[in-house]
Amino acid sequence: MKSKVFVLALSVSISIIFSYISSEAASDASFPSDWQKWTSVSTTLTGIGALPDCNADVSKLPPIYQETVSTYCGVKQGGPGKVAVLVNPAVMDAYKARNGKFKDGSNMILHLKDMKVLFVTAHKDGSVTYGVFSEDGKDITANDGPLSAGTCKTCHTGYAAFCVNGQCGKIK
Ligand code: HEC
User: Other CB atoms closer than 10 Å to residue 72's CB: what's the count?
Assistant: First the structure.
């Protein structure tokens, strides 16, 4: 009798462990450990300089930028703050040309400098993947909400006129 209870308890705890593992967030993009050597580019967003807080008047910006502000203005008090866009030097030509010809691997970063967070866009076998990392490489991609890969994808693929194969910005 005792052993049956033990087996039951064991299988319950194993299934709890497994459901925990499977629900744990994981990035589909890998952390680019050489990100500090990537090329910083000037775009519309870096021209604005920062992602503002939720009270900012962004009504003059294109809709995709308005949605970006409304998605991220609340992730930090006062707004996410200073930003930079970094491009893997190996795909600089594709970024400039906006031709979508990205090689497999991590290719672009939206650096939230004040938050010390990297939004990473990668490519694999013809599809675009997304991840969120701390500057030192901790995978902090969430299951849902603003820091989930699903949210990145919805916007980056949803604005087809703005974003080409995962690239939404353009060199200014
Ligand atoms: C509501 C829309 C929206 C969401 C959600 C969003 N982005 Fe973006 N993203 C943009 C826009 C617009 C730009 C271009 C900004 C500019 O002018 O540089 C951009 C730029 C980027 C860039 C710089 C390279 C480029 O030009 O595309 C990366 C990398 C990036 N986003 C990754 C992510 C990741 C990872 C997530 C999810 C954690 C995410 N984004 C969520 C709209 C969005």
Answer: 23
